[in-house]
Amino acid sequence: PYYVSIDQNLFLEASLHSSDPLLELFLHTCVASPSRHNFTTGTYAIVENGCVKDPTYAVYYSPRRNALRFKFNAFQFIRSNPEVYLQCELVVCRAFDYSSRCYQGCVKRSRREASS
Predict the structure, then answer these.
(1) How many other β-carbons are positioned within 10 Å of the β-carbon of residue 37?
(2) Mean of the pLDDT values across residues 13-22?
(3) 3 state SS of 48
(4) Is the pLDDT of residue 112 over 70?
(5) Closest to 42 measured CA to CA, from 4, 89, 80
(6) What's the superkingdom here (predicted)?
(7) Model confidence over 18-35: pLDDT tens digits?
(8) CA–CA gap between residue 6 and residue 68 (Å, rounded)
(9) 73: CB partners within 8 A, 6+ apart
(10) Quick one: pLDDT at residue 111?
(11) How far is CA 30 from CA 24, 49, 90, in A?
(12) Which of 4, 55, 97, 102 stands 20 to 30 A from 70 (CA)?
């Protein structure tokens, strides 16, 4: 566990351990949950489909392509235990592959039209 106070900045770094310097990371989804066993209901999205959902989220410069640094303000779920669990999904891409998911950025899903 990592202990922080409410509204304190929580800094994270994800890194890829590879000898290939042309691989890079993209944060696809990062979700917080009051339970370590359920990341589908009662959760809070920080990043979803590459789109920032939390206004306190920020990306920080990393000198290495294979490391991703970001932060957000710590929070607590209402009426629950004081623990918050994170589950983040990252995508590994070849650097400078402009057709890869890493270069698409935020992808908003289109809503389906309801038929009559």
Answers:
(1) 6
(2) 91
(3) strand
(4) no
(5) 80
(6) Eukaryota
(7) 889 899 999 999 999 988
(8) 23
(9) 7, 8, 9, 10, 54, 56
(10) 56
(11) 17, 9, 9
(12) 97
Strand partners, 10: 72
60 neighbors 14 (Cβ within 8 angstroms): no
Question: Which amino acid, residue 102?
Answer: C
Nearest by Cα to 54 from 24, 10, 5, 100 = 10
Specify the amino acid at residue 30: C
Please report, in angstroms and rounded to a whole number, the separation of the first and last CA atoms in the chain: 51
Rg (CA), the chain: 16
Encoded tokens for 41: 């209901």
Rounded to whole angstroms, the Cα distance separating 94 from 16 reads 12
Report the C-alpha gap between 75 and 65 in whole angstroms. Answer: 29
Q: How many residues comprise the chain?
A: 116
Nearest to 21, CA basis, from 103, 94, 91, 102 = 94
Residue 115 has pLDDT above 60, yes or no: no
Percent of the chain's residues with pLDDT above 90: 58
